[in-house]
Design brief:
alpha/beta, binds pyridoxal-5'-phosphate, seven-stranded mixed beta sheet, about 15% strand, single chain, 13 helices, globular, about 400 residues
């Protein structure tokens, strides 16, 4: 299987982890050698209820017996998609009411950018340095990492960058700006939280100049920071909310939500302002609905903050300089990329899954399922500390 993986499946790094998966349940992934791994990554924040949660699996099975794909997005009334959009609206503040369901995070970002341009009639877009919003052409254009963009140019024009948490840069948001797009908590940059009411200040500036504010909650959303969406921690309501990853409970999804008035602009001039075949797919919407129901009906969200404290209290080691982030979206910062690499690879040998962050080579990602138990947290932190105790520093 490994040979076929390298021969037939396109790779994006020269050294993928290449673990051969047998099955996964709860907080554990099992490989084909029957080795068990405790999962501190949750499919890169995409499995908030762990692996194969019974409520999600049951919702998928029930829907599979009724119907699969029947029509392109938005033509037929399909209960799973309607119920999902309604439950999102019921859990969001005014005026976030209408949701467009798509197939991935990056597609939701594309839809949000189109909506902002269409609604404002402006073209300039402002993003943040070190942001990550996805890898299709529009989302890639938002990134300021030239080395990763250069081979794909020309990309979208009229994109400029401000520094997250830098208030002096807010003056660059002007009456020419269609939208400002920010991650509520910067992910790839190293789990950087907004400070000193930064998001509120961005909100005010956008209001003053008539620009729309898009918040990318693809990673912090769906309970990971103790609230259903990260923005609820920072007193700032976006014009367009983008979500994905964890919303699908392990199936691929993306969504963007806005006010009814704003979203209606996608219906005319031109009509069919955004089209997708599979967006709102009934099986995926069923999985997402079950995920959202479980998260909003249980006390998983409030437990998240207790679990953060437990991780912080057990992850104490001279090589851990800092733990950044909020809830179960945490990054441990180590002295060097070399130590990070050793820690990730040796932890995997010792039965713990960790992973890198995109733009911060000194960080390891700790984003376990929200369903992880206290015992599992203590066990995983113990593995990290033991590996660090034995690390070779060159
Ligand atoms: C903050 C953020 N935005 C957008 C994306 C893109 O989502 P997807 O990979 O589903 O296209 C990601 C994925 O890592 C992300 O973390």
């Amino acid at each position: 299987m490994k040979d076929d993986f390298f021969k037939y499946q396109a790779q994006t790094t020269p050294h993928p982890l290449a673990m051969e998966i047998s099955h996964a349940k709860g907080s554990y992934i099992y490989d084909t050698n029957n080795k068990v791994y405790l999962d501190f990554v949750a499919g890169v924040s995409a499995c908030p209820l762990g692996h194969s949660h019974p409520r999600v699996v049951s919702a998928i099975k029930t829907q599979i017996d009724k119907y699969l794909h029947v029509m392109v997005y938005g033509e037929y009334i399909q209960k799973p998609a309607v119920d999902l959009c309604e439950l999102l609206a019921k859990n969001l503040p005014f005026p976030l009411e209408k949701t467009y369901l798509v197939n991935s995070g990056t597609e939701a970002i594309e839809g949000a950018l189109k909506l902002a341009r269409r609604a404002t009639g402006r073209s300039e877009i402002i993003a943040a340095h070190s942001a990550y919003h996805g890898n299709t052409m529009g989302s890639l254009s938002l990134m300021d990492f030239e080395e990763r963009k250069a081979p794909f140019r020309p990309l979208l024009p009229e994109i400029s960058h401000i520094t997250f948490n830098n208030e002096a840069h807010l003056k660059h948001i002007t009456t020419k700006t269609a939208c400002v797009i920010l991650e509520t908590i910067q992910g790839g940059a190293g789990f950087i939280e907004p400070k000193n009411d930064y998001l509120q200040k961005v909100r005010e500036r956008c209001n003053d100049v008539g620009a729309l504010l898009i918040l990318d909650e693809i990673q912090p959303g769906i309970g990971r920071t103790g609230k259903l969406f990260g923005f609820e921690n920072y007193n700032c309501i976006p014009d367009i909310l983008v979500t994905g990853k964890g919303l699908g409970g392990g199936l691929p999804i993306g969504a963007f939500t806005a006010s009814t008035k704003l979203m209606e602009t996608l219906q005319d001039n031109p009509k069919l302002g955004h089209i997708t075949t599979f967006g709102g797919n009934p099986v995926i919407a069923s999985a997402a609905l079950a995920t959202l129901q479980e998260i909003t009906e249980s006390d998983l969200m409030s437990q998240t903050l207790e679990k953060e404290k437990l991780i912080r209290s057990h992850l104490k080691h001279p090589l851990i300089n800092e733990i950044r982030g909020k809830g179960l979206m945490l990054a441990a910062i180590l002295p060097s990329a070399e130590i990070v690499n050793q820690l990730i690879l040796k932890s995997q040998d010792n039965g713990l899954i960790l992973f890198w962050l995109l733009f911060e080579p000194k960080a390891i990602r700790i984003t376990p399922p929200l369903t992880i138990s206290n015992e599992e947290i203590i066990k995983g932190c113990g593995i990290i500390v033991e590996v660090l105790n034995n690390i070779q520093i060159r």
